[in-house]
């Protein structure tokens, strides 16, 4: 966690020449320097562990594409290396957000870069698989269309509130990651059949959770409009 020691930020309340404490308990406003120091304690640095994991995930996107398409895109060894890059990216996705919330490392950079990194690695994998003929383009279109659509929907209703991540959404993300990872590997036999079913489950969850987010957005918007109307009527009364 970033920050400076409490002693450097002003520590405990100090006595003034009149004998009163310089903090709020003494009836006086804290010194301007104390406010700046306190802000320095509470403001997380951009170069914290959560953001570094997000940056790593962004850097893994071009590396993954290069490994995925190496030697024509069908070499099992290169595909294994591509799978490793994809797996690392997905694992870091599980930790960066948790670390940011748990240790108060949330920054404006992280709010913007984290969802971009998520969409970038998944989008790169799906597009590469479809370009190589391993995955139908309609599957890629459904998954990416849903992700981009829900992201846009969140921005449209943010004035009324935030749509929370659901358990179904988390299960969808996990299933997508497993399915795409299985397609990246050069699997044969029953494993190739199994990955088809896992991808089918991922598509179903993608559509179902997408529709649920639309429902939540409609309800949230209606509630927000009703609350604003009630507040306006109360003010006029």
Task: Give a written overview of the molecule.
The protein contains seven helices and no strands. With 237 residues, the protein is mainly alpha-helical. The model is unreliable at 1-42 (pLDDT under 50).
Would you spell out the secondary-structure blueprint of this structure?
Elements: H1 32-42, H2 49-69, H3 76-102, H4 108-131, H5 137-156, H6 167-184, H7 190-236
Brief digest:
This protein is mostly helical. Helix content is 71%, strand content 0%.
Strands, total number: 0
- What's the overall geometry? globular
- Topology pattern, helix = H, strand = E: HHHHHHH
Oligomer: single chain
Estimate the strand proportion.
under 5%
Keywords, separated by commas or semicolons:
237 residues; mainly alpha; disordered N terminus
């Amino acid at each position: 966690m970033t920050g400076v020691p409490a002693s450097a930020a002003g520590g405990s309340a100090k006595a003034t020449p009149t004998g009163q404490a310089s903090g709020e308990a003494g009836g006086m406003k804290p010194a301007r320097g104390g406010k700046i120091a306190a802000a320095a304690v509470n403001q997380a640095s951009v170069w914290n562990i959560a953001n570094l994991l997000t940056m790593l995930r962004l850097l893994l996107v071009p590396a993954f594409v290069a490994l995925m398409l190496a030697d024509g895109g069908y070499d099992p060894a290169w595909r294994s290396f591509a799978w490793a890059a994809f797996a690392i990216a997905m694992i870091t996705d599980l930790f960066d957000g948790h670390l940011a919330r748990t240790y108060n490392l949330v920054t404006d950079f992280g709010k913007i870069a984290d969802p971009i990194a998520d969409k970038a690695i998944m989008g790169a994998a799906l597009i590469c698989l479809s370009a190589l003929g391993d995955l139908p383009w309609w599957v890629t279109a459904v998954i990416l269309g849903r992700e981009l659509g829900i992201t846009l929907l969140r921005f449209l209703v943010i004035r009324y509130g935030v749509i929370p991540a659901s358990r179904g959404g988390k299960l969808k993300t996990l299933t997508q990651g497993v399915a795409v990872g299985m397609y990246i590997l050069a699997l044969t036999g029953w494993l190739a059949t199994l990955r088809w079913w896992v991808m089918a489950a991922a598509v179903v969850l993608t559509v179902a959770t997408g529709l649920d987010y639309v429902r939540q957005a409609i309800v949230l918007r209606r509630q927000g409009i009703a609350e604003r109307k009630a507040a306006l009527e109360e003010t006029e009364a």
